[in-house]
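Input chain follows. Return structure tokens only.
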Amino acid sequence: MELKKITTQQDIEIVKSFFYKIFLDESGYNLSHFKQSVSGKHSYSRLEFYIAYENNVAVGLSGVYANRTDECWLGWFGIRPEYRQKGFATKLLNLQLQMMKDDGYKICRVYTNVISNKEAVCLYLKNGFEKDAVYAKNLVIMAKPLIKNTPVRKWKGKPLGFVPEWPI
């Protein structure tokens, strides 16, 4: 598997061709984070997205958000439906986590919906993430140390300010 960083409008068009098949509950989303990552107009210290290719076919998507030097967030992680149950999610997750570790991050966090993304929750748990916090009974934040024996403090804030009503 190869990860290609999204850097052009053409890359965003490739994402657009399968984004709504991966993220069914995001039908009104306009890919603004992807556009911001390409333009550089955002408030994060790091905002990058990657298309995962297997044999030159785009099979999935992943991203990294960060506002700290030691901690990052996995974002918009998904595999196209026709490529699921073939090991691509585990491959992509391992590649992305290794990249984060190589970039000096000590902790990776992710949040997801425990109702509509049960498979993702299982994938994260199977790959060393632990449940950290639950909001609104259906959104869970999970964390994983990227460096052995790194303590993971409990999340008590908003995940990068995405949802204003979450407690700080």
